[in-house]
Structure formats: C-alpha cells, structure tokens
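Q: Fold this one first, please.
A: Sequence and structure below.
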Amino acid sequence: MTPPATALTESITRQLDQLSAHLSQAGPQQAAQILKQVLDAEDGILGRLTALVGTGTYVTKHHAQRGVFPAEMWLALGRTANTLHDLALDLDERQEVFEEITSRHSLTTASPAATQANPLVARGRHR
C-alpha cells in the first residue's frame, strides 16, 4: 500500500502535468487566467509551493539539529524558500498584466500588435 503522503505527492504531480499540458494549448486569455492563478504569491501554486518549501526548511532544521539531516540540506532549503519567495513577490507585482489580458473582450491572432516587430526579438537585437 502506498503511504498517503506519497499518493498525495504523485496525484499533485500528475495534476501539475495536466495543467502544464492545458496551458501549452491555451489561447492568450485562458493562458493569462491560468498563469494569474498559478503565480499568485499567496493562494496560487507558486505561493503554496513556497510555503511547502518553507515548511520543509523548518522540518529539516529540526532534524538537522538532531543529527538526522545534514545541515547543508536545511541551508539549501532555506535558500530555496527565500528565492521562491522573492520570485513570487516579483511576479506578484506584475499580476495586472494578466488582469488586463483576461479582461479583454476578444483577442485575435492578427491583431495590430502581432503585425509589428516582436518586442522580445527587437530587444534581443540590441543586446
């Protein structure tokens, strides 16, 4: 029998794979909606993952103090939690982009912006 935590982890992993596949096929508005929810610093997947890694930091600290986990694992998880937190805050500051895209009434594939030079390509040429 699979332990409950292992089964839960496997289920979440499968669901994330499904969400990734769905995102790869989504149109602009639906992609913006998915990303808005995923990247939410508090309630989104990124926020919850950050909290999970933070919990892992506390757990490994406790076990490292008892000599079960190496201290390097605790420190690495702490750095990871801090990095995820900083990334989540950085992305959270840009949530209005997703809001603006999801609120548009319709997006066409041949919009005027699409016929202009791609800003990512243009920026890449200048560097």
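Q: Good. Now the second chain.
A: Here it is, same layout.
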Amino acid sequence: MFEAMEEWAADERAEGRAEGRTEERTEIVENMLKKKKTIEEIVDFCNLPEDFVREVEKRMHVTV
C-alpha cells in the first residue's frame, strides 16, 4: 500500500513539473511573438515543435 502511494505521489510530481514546463514554454513563445519573431525563428531558436508555437499564436489572437 505504501509503495502504491509513493508511486502516485511521484506521478503527481512529474505531472506538475511537465505542466510547469509547458506554461514556461508558452510564456517564452508569447514573449517572442510579441517581439515580432517569426514562427520559424522561434521553432529554430527554442527547439520547439512548430504546431506548439502555432497553437500559442492562435490562442494569443483569440485572447487579445
């Protein structure tokens, strides 16, 4: 039982770290787009998937 709780806690921590990284990457992409960097420049510089950068750009247009 204790082992199962430890595994669950480890999974929760990993999920939290992944979510934090995604939020951080989103903020970086938003800042670069605001500075008029192209999607290609962001993909190349940050080594991020193009679809991720395009999705961030799309959400920015909806919320702005």
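Q: Anything worth noting on the second one?
A: The chain has three helices and no strands.
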